[in-house]
């Protein structure tokens, strides 16, 4: 928001006070993140300031063969699979809830997004007892399904928001021209809701890649993901290797945010197009 040229001195003063306050709040929120990054280049063996020297030894440690790469491999297996399943189930659920009108639709929507509201420990305990009954504990399948449940609400919300401006008469038009429901979905509906799907998928990926509580209950030592490895490192031996991996995750999160902003602007341009 730009300052209007006809603003009074009081309005100008308030404008700069407001901008300065917002800047200080933003700095307060992101300062802990920026503190981590220099520590990843420390030549010392502990997380201390001032830095004893500059070194890339901790990046070499996490990228060498060992527990860090094994946990990263597990996360790169689980997160994409969970994201694909969450995008599929979440999109179908959002389209179905928007297309149909039946009693209890609000309750079903509330149940779908409940993993975002219910405390994660309660969700983890519930999954633990349920998966124990069906034999999915200590397996990639169980971990992927658990993270899918956590990712579905994000896809439902973003696709549901995208469908608010969707004209379902287009589906009727496609059906009147002889297209099957599946073809109508892939040729008419899907191209218009892709930005919402991808945005929800990015949130689902970030949730799976960063999730630790449910993984502690579901995964075995062979399925140890990257957040579990970081959690164990903090509990047992705090080394700058954790800061190095945290720096990489910060860069990954920044790329995800940039991608989501790009998709948001693209969706706005598509809606504004005649």
UniProtKB/TrEMBL annotation:
Query: What's one GO BP annotation on this UniProt entry?
Result: transmembrane transport
- What Gene3D superfamilies has UniProt attached to this entry? MetI-like
Which Gene Ontology terms of cellular component type are present?
A: plasma membrane
Entry keyword annotation includes Hydrolase: no
Where does this protein reside within or beyond the cell? Cell inner membrane; Cell membrane
Q: Which Pfam families match?
A: BPD_transp_1 (PF00528)
Q: How does it sit in the membrane?
A: Multi-pass membrane protein
InterPro entries, sorted: MetI-like, MetI-like_sf
Where in this chain does the record put each ABC transmembrane type-1 domain? Answer: 72-260
Q: Which UniProt keywords apply?
A: Cell inner membrane, Cell membrane, Membrane, Transmembrane, Transmembrane helix, Transport
Chain ranges passing through the membrane: 21-41, 76-95, 107-131, 143-163, 184-206, 241-263
Look up keyword Cell membrane and say if it applies. yes
Q: Mind telling me which PANTHER family this protein's record contains?
A: INNER MEMBRANE ABC TRANSPORTER PERMEASE PROTEIN YDCV (PTHR43357)
The Swiss-Prot or TrEMBL record describes its family as follows: Belongs to the binding-protein-dependent transport system permease family.
Which protein are we looking at?
ABC transporter permease
Naturally occurring in which organism (per UniProt): Vreelandella rituensis
Q: What is the lineage of its organism?
A: Bacteria, Pseudomonadati, Pseudomonadota, Gammaproteobacteria, Oceanospirillales
């Amino acid at each position: 928001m730009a300052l209007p040229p006809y603003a009074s001195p009081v309005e100008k003063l308030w404008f700069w006070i407001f901008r300065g306050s917002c800047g200080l709040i933003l700095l307060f929120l992101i300062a802990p993140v920026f503190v981590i990054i220099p520590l990843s280049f420390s030549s010392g063996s502990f997380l201390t300031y001032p830095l004893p020297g500059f070194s890339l030894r901790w990046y070499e440690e996490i990228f060498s063969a060992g527990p860090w790469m094994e946990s990263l491999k597990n996360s790169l297996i689980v997160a994409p699979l969970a994201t694909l399943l969450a995008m599929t189930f979440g999109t179908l659920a959002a389209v179905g809830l928007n297309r149909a009108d039946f009693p209890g639709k609000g309750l079903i929507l509330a149940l779908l997004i409940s993993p975002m509201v219910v405390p994660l420990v309660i969700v983890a305990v519930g999954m633990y007892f349920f998966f124990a009954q069906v034999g999915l504990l200590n397996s990639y399948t169980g971990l992927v399904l658990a993270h899918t449940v956590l990712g579905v609400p994000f896809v439902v919300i973003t696709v549901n928001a995208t469908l608010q401006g969707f004209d379902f008469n287009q589906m009727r038009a496609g059906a009147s021209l002889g297209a099957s429901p599946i073809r109508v979905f892939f040729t008419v509906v899907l191209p218009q809701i892709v930005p919402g799907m991808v945005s929800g998928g990015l949130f689902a990926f970030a949730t799976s890649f960063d999730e630790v509580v449910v993984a502690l209950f579901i995964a075995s030592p062979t399925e140890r993901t990257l957040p579990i490895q970081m959690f164990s490192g903090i509990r047992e031996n705090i080394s700058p290797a954790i800061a190095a991996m945290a720096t990489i995750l910060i860069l990954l999160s920044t790329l995800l945010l940039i991608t989501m902003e790009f998709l948001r602007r693209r969706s706005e341009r598509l809606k504004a197009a005649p």
